[in-house]
Amino acid sequence: MRQIRTDLAMEQTGARDLPGVTISSWEAGDIVITEVRIDTGEGAKLLNKAPGVYVTLECAPLRKQGPELRIAMASLLGEELLRLMPPEDDRPVLVIGLGNRSVTPDSLGPKTVERTLVTRHIFRELPDSVDDRMSPVCAVAPGVLGVTGIETLEVAHGIVREVNPRVVIVIDALTARASSRVGSTVQLTDTGIQPGSGVGNHRSALTDETLGVKVLALGVPTVIYAATIARDALSMLSEDDGTREEELDHLCEKLFEGALGEMIVTPREIDDLVGDVAQILASGINQALHPGLSEKEILTMMS
Amino acid sequence: MRQIRTDLAMEQTGARDLPGVTISSWEAGDIVITEVRIDTGEGAKLLNKAPGVYVTLECAPLRKQGPELRIAMASLLGEELLRLMPPEDDRPVLVIGLGNRSVTPDSLGPKTVERTLVTRHIFRELPDSVDDRMSPVCAVAPGVLGVTGIETLEVAHGIVREVNPRVVIVIDALTARASSRVGSTVQLTDTGIQPGSGVGNHRSALTDETLGVKVLALGVPTVIYAATIARDALSMLSEDDGTREEELDHLCEKLFEGALGEMIVTPREIDDLVGDVAQILASGINQALHPGLSEKEILTMMS
Amino acid sequence: MRQIRTDLAMEQTGARDLPGVTISSWEAGDIVITEVRIDTGEGAKLLNKAPGVYVTLECAPLRKQGPELRIAMASLLGEELLRLMPPEDDRPVLVIGLGNRSVTPDSLGPKTVERTLVTRHIFRELPDSVDDRMSPVCAVAPGVLGVTGIETLEVAHGIVREVNPRVVIVIDALTARASSRVGSTVQLTDTGIQPGSGVGNHRSALTDETLGVKVLALGVPTVIYAATIARDALSMLSEDDGTREEELDHLCEKLFEGALGEMIVTPREIDDLVGDVAQILASGINQALHPGLSEKEILTMMS
Amino acid sequence: MRQIRTDLAMEQTGARDLPGVTISSWEAGDIVITEVRIDTGEGAKLLNKAPGVYVTLECAPLRKQGPELRIAMASLLGEELLRLMPPEDDRPVLVIGLGNRSVTPDSLGPKTVERTLVTRHIFRELPDSVDDRMSPVCAVAPGVLGVTGIETLEVAHGIVREVNPRVVIVIDALTARASSRVGSTVQLTDTGIQPGSGVGNHRSALTDETLGVKVLALGVPTVIYAATIARDALSMLSEDDGTREEELDHLCEKLFEGALGEMIVTPREIDDLVGDVAQILASGINQALHPGLSEKEILTMMS
């Protein structure tokens, strides 16, 4: 299945029992939470993902739901994020929004950063105006290599050295296999960002090892690769008539030789969708990092 | 081939000899011009397009070319547009940009309108400051039904009654079958806009009949439907093993039952691409409508 | 006071008793409502405004307040709007957003239209899916003369003929005299739009007479003219030393001969401010036109 | 003259002979070049600017000119920039765009960065595809303190440590005193960015000392402070009647107690103006850093 690409660990598992992989799943209202835990190198190889925890929150398509589902997603995301966070100390949290803000489906990271409540400068300059319910937060969108000429890892590394955070939360637009998950599934992992992942195909890892600090990654699929869809169509056919995998791969390669290979599949309303999802992610982050503030207080501080 | 959808007449023709259809093709530098002329109802039925002339300008992918190709495309488009225009008189030309400016691949029309040199108000208010090399032009982007609650035809009809144009030029984002044509092929037709066409799936016709004035339509594909790609993948396979058409259609329907059916396939860099293509279309229109003005004079008047 | 320019009737009144003008004022929570009623031609001349009712809602600067004040403003605006609306019948309401969407302080109208719930097409196509709590609404942003070559009045007139509304609500960005009112004061009037008003300096009237239907206008100041500020500075000085009015006007003319005359004064955060104000106006309109729908239902229908 | 604020050294000089300050001026076509050289601490104190060279390119209002003037400005800027640049070596040039991309008049830096040709990654990864006519360039827009919670200096410092540039070029939106200079005057200096300068009021210096590498700064005024205009109006009056400076300052303070103090004065068409100016700055930078490439080659590489 070489032509199929997804950044969601849960889409790799299938209905199989995998050695070195623990999967659990539960529901909270209309949201299904799945936790995939990769414990061994064998499990990592089977799923083609780094060892660690991958928590997925899945809901029905956001665009067709009311505001309650979004509020519930943000609230649940805040809780799951808190569960993976290291204990609080005086150091700030650094939020990094990956991706290219001029490429709509890749702009989720920068747009989430814009909606994140930053407070590190207030803690430093007006310490009397903050209280226990808040923690110091800073946030950047470092841009992408083709636009800056600098690897994301280089920018992140430089900033980590300056601000000395206790944890880095990286936001990224992901790819999925199933169209139903685009814009409606949040993945949270303690493995950071791996090379080749994301809509922007990051080339360097942003992990505990490369940044020297705990790295959590948060993402939502915004695209499917055109090749994935064609390959799924071919696979469906082959189930019926027994065409061999290699033959399908060969056909798929032929199909994607030209411009099609660089094309992406997105919902038609991707511009609005990315804005809505960025709001949910930022809201979840704000709740996790300033657990004592009400949504109203956060809104007031951001306006 | 029911699942395949394209707004390009030339993609419907294939390598067949079709009754009631005349196809001719020639080259101008790196650009291939194809003219499909549908002369009879039989031809219209075969191609599923209204009778009339469809001129297509095709070039290599714009994003990988230098500025000369864009200049050449604009210039050739200006010439072809002039060829289809009714004779000049005192009445203005009305340019209408269809589509939703907040949906990137559907925003080609509004973005072209923004770059079109409008002069009708100068002809009316400062007649001494215009000269023979210019003609009166006005331009609107009426928005889409879901955003305005008004059919595009209603807005267009209302404005046509007010400004009494000698010709309407409608700009629209199209769908294609071949990914290589996205962003690099311009179609010009004297048949106007037909129901169901375009990325936005217009529901009413904008034609000589509905608007009571000559209507030309100008468009560039910005998306392929996800279903088209899957169907093409299936077709390729079936050429090898003889699967029947109905079976493929059935498989395709199964594949597109859910969210996938509403998804579109675009180049990753669609935001920039739409801007570039809008500039080419507007430049072609400006050259056709103000044939005596240099590109530099047009730029100066627009800044 | 020739160099002073404001679109707010209440800023013209001063602390004077004016013949033909009735002024009343009351409070609702943190919001001050002022009603200026111009009953005679004499009053109209004194205030340089058309006869009719001007209702102003004033609050503290929005950017420094929490979400409750915005909710209260929208709710109060909805009530005041209802008070001026003609009785309901089967015809739709037409909302027209004036101004240039590419000029931030002039983009209030188009941005309000984007956030208005339109329903006319649902009433026509899916009558079973609407209910008593809703009314048919359509909305357009016709663009400005310099961009379209068509007078706003021409576009509005053409659309009014097509959709036959029972009332037109026109939204526009205004100019003020006092900086404290920029972004924080809403004016609602039954006199429509007068020539020369608004940030965009509309040249034709949009009124009951020109459109043949009841016209309400809704606006918020987003700019002050640079000349107004300089003139106020000069006036302040002249109060101290008795410089004559004509002398001040002469000085002001000298000061504004060059580029300064075309400059506007806005809050630094005008981009965000216009978005926030558009949301309040749209929310007020939505509540007035669909009085039975909850804010949550409206949000769900718009996503 | 305490209420007057400008970032242009040339606006500080007046028609005076100042000790420790050398001023020279010459013309190149329609462009006036002025060089202010502050040689001593005394001169620095007199002009309230750091010692160093300030080169200003002034032209007529861009918005009313044709494309040639823009081409001439970019070309001259490239030459002046080269004159101040340290000798070339293997290290890259780092371009830093200051300011808030969501605040139009403050977005000049980020917008210039978007239009700058970056090549550092190509030099590193595809060294065979670059040639002598190019040099390695990287570029970032670090965001502003209120949005990121991180001082611009901290981000800049972190990135400088990672990429080890031979020179940093900082781009910033400036304030002016004379409205005729808004959008039409470029200032280039070898003194870097001083605290309190720019539309965004940067609080830390970005200089040779703070970054440990040569820093050039490039800026264009996009706003005037409202207070400057009022103060100029008052001064004009006082020339006539001899009002004392202290009295004027007192009046000005009274005038600017409220919201007005935070307001800015910009041309109405600031959105377009910032885009045009960013294009000129980026074009000048591209010509200085890749002196062998034609404008056409640069455009092709950027698309």
Short description:
The first copy, chain A, is of the alpha/beta class and 303 residues long.
Give an overview in words.
Four copies of one chain form a homotetramer. With 303 residues, chain A is α/β, with parallel strands linked by helices. Helix content of chain A is 39%, strand content 21%. The first copy, chain A, has twelve helices and nine strands. Chain A has helices spanning 10-13, 41-47, 67-84, 108-114, 120-125, 145-148, 152-163, 208-211, 226-241, 245-255, 270-289, 295-302, and strands spanning 21-28, 31-38, 52-58, 93-97, 137-140, 167-175, 185-189, 214-225, 263-267. In chain A, strands 1, 2, 3, 4, 5, 6, 7, 8 and 9 form a nine-stranded mixed sheet that branches. In chain A, a hairpin with a 2-residue loop joins strand 1 (21-28) and strand 2 (31-38). The first copy, chain A, is globular, with a radius of gyration of 20 Å. The interface between A and B is large, with 43 and 43 residues. Strand 9 of chain A pairs antiparallel with strand 9 (263-267) of chain B, so a sheet runs across the interface.
Topology:
The structure is a homotetramer of 303-residue chains.
Chain A: H1 10-13, E1 21-28, E2 31-38, H2 41-47, E3 52-58, H3 67-84, E4 93-97, H4 108-114, H5 120-125, E5 137-140, H6 145-148, H7 152-163, E6 167-175, E7 185-189, H8 208-211, E8 214-225, H9 226-241, H10 245-255, E9 263-267, H11 270-289, H12 295-302
Parallel strand pairs in A: 4-5, 4-6, 6-8
Antiparallel strand pairs in A: 1-2, 2-3, 3-7, 7-8, 8-9
- Quaternary structure classification: homotetramer
Query: Whole-Å distance between the termini of chain A?
Result: 48 Å
DSSP strand tally of chain A: 9
Radius of gyration of chain A: 20 Å
| Shape field of chain A | globular
